[in-house]
Amino acid sequence: MELAKRLQPLQSNVFADMDKAKAKALAAGQELIDLSLGSSDLPAEAHVIEAIAQSLHNPSTHGYLLFHGTQAFRQAAATWYEQKFGVSVDPETEVLPLIGSQEGTAHLPLAVLNPGDFALLLDPGYPSHVGGVYLANGQIYPMPIRAENGFLPVFTEIPTAVLAQSRMMVLSYPHNPTTAIAPLSFFKEAVAFCQQHNLVLVHDFPYVDLVFEENGGSGKSLAPSILQADPDKSVSIEFFTLSKSYNMGGFRIGYAIGNAELIRALRQIKAAVDFNQYRGILNGAIAALIGPQSGVQATVATLRQRRDAFVGALHRIGWYVPTPKATMYVWAKLPEPWSQNSVEFCTQLVQKTGVAASPGAGFGKSGEGYVRFALVHDTPVLQTAVERMAAFL
Predict the structure, then answer these.
(1) Any idea which of 3-17, 243-257, 345-359 has the lowest mean pLDDT?
(2) Domain shared by 61 and 38, yes or no
(3) What is the mean predicted confidence (pLDDT) over 87-102?
(4) Which residues pair with residue 256 across a beta bridge?
């Protein structure tokens, strides 16, 4: 049987490769501490679960859910954005429910790219951004992001010939895997650049709330929205998921928000692929967005505590890494002799200690020399992981 050539670039990814290494370690009798996946171990809030539970007993929620039936969710999303960022949003034309933000970043290239068009992606960056471009038969131009530039791309480094053939740029801050935050001034530069070169500007925004610096109790996010730099939504679309802020990863609920033409195009792609989620999940998401936000604050406090404990433990064993200001990760530069072989480091680490991490090379060429740890266990477990790594190193 001969399959489509577009599958060839998708043969492997960082998560699948590490899954094999973890299975091998378990089979060898290792006790696994999995820090390789950003899947929260914290529960969704009780009022969210209750909203879903109540829906289960209502037969009217058991059928297909078409776009019109998502109006209450779209309104909640628009209100959330307006309150958080001061950006006016039309829930009818500028919001689209998604099965997590990954659905958006994977499917939007089908609506934007013609075969051979370039997408400008962060390097390192989240693997699904790459996959969506390949499925659309597009080409990728990786924009290297380096520590000396605050892990922000330098637009002037993009070749003129590539720009002439480019149709979209994908950003994501707070950034996975580097944990960097982009200031609003950078987003304004990005918007102006995309307007000048007729590019669609995509912003993947799952870590909006997972920012650790204090903001004086203003209630405003320290991580800006791309729509604050493009309030007219001239070129921009943003993807948000409830997986991180509200610990609803398994419920698969998120949304796109932004330029009405892009929302309409993505809606056409979605209509050809699936219906919407179960209405009860949307009811839970509405409860999360419009209900008490104390759970979000508690999640951030827990991750801050874990971050401090994990980074402090690494420092005590002589592995000096910067303290992340956001996300649920630690992006660590590898010590010698592993500095240019992150895959081998992670493979050996899980086989010999049971500690699983994600190799930086899996996020792109510029990620080589780094490893990403996810703060998805309680502090004592994280400290045990560092103790095992100390013996390994």
Answers:
(1) 3-17
(2) no
(3) 96
(4) 96, 239
